[in-house]
Amino acid sequence: MTDTIDPPEAAPAEPQVVPFTKPVATAPASAPRVIAIANQKGGVGKTTTAINLGTALAAIGEHVLIVDLDPQGNASTGLGIERKQRRTSTYDVLTGHAPMRDAVIPTAVPQLHLAPSTMDLSGLELEIGRERDRAFRLRTALHNINNGTPAFNFTYVLVDCPPSLNLITVNAMAAANSILVPMQCEFFALEGLSQLLKTVDEVKKNLNPNLSIHGIVMTMFDSRNNLANQVVADVRQFMGKQVYETVIPRNVRISEAPSYGKPVLVYDLKCVGSEAYLRLATEIIQRERAMKAAG
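Structure for Chromosome partitioning protein ParA, as requested:
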């Protein structure tokens, strides 16, 4: 978590010293599955995965909400939501100034909604770092999301996390059923994974005992690159079945789509990137069914 600076008149205490107060966990029967897309490394495809996985899930019949928790707001921009449209943001929700339902807006993709982000979110830790419920703001905000007016019927919530293990990411992990970890097919792919897994263990121990690793998806894969093939092999050897069979290729269409404010499945449905995300969505649904059967 990032350090905070106390104002001169405040006592010199770290925000995380204040004990957590857990909210009452009484989720309704229709509660959606919450998947946090997290990796403290930047540039590994978190936002791209959130946008395109959300679109793919919607395309196969799911009702999806993407919660943009990155102050840069790239998921919002990538879905064509201009800044003037972000009247209520996830910053307003996590600071307690608005309910999540007020932040939810439809996208151009049927059955896909978004809770947008703004740069205000970068100051969240300074504002709520000493609050007893600081790690549970997102969980509380998503509680009963499907109840009320207008009526929502979300089956999945995908949380796009910032590239750091700060209070925002901890909020996502405390609210999530599971974590999806995008990893770039590069030499340093495994660097930092142990720290992420350690953070997940800490969150399980102290905040969310039901949290699990849903899976690891390898991104930006170039089959012509021997190093990329070796990285995928190494990660599969290290993490076993937690690595999805689907690998997201390095694809020009995937890179171009955000500049048009569209998911790649809308920008070019038949490109290899779109096909990969559809396969990933199918694989995730299959894992969900297996997890429910096992539980």
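Strands lie at 33-37, 64-68, 105-106, 112-115, 156-160, 178-184, 212-221, 243-249.
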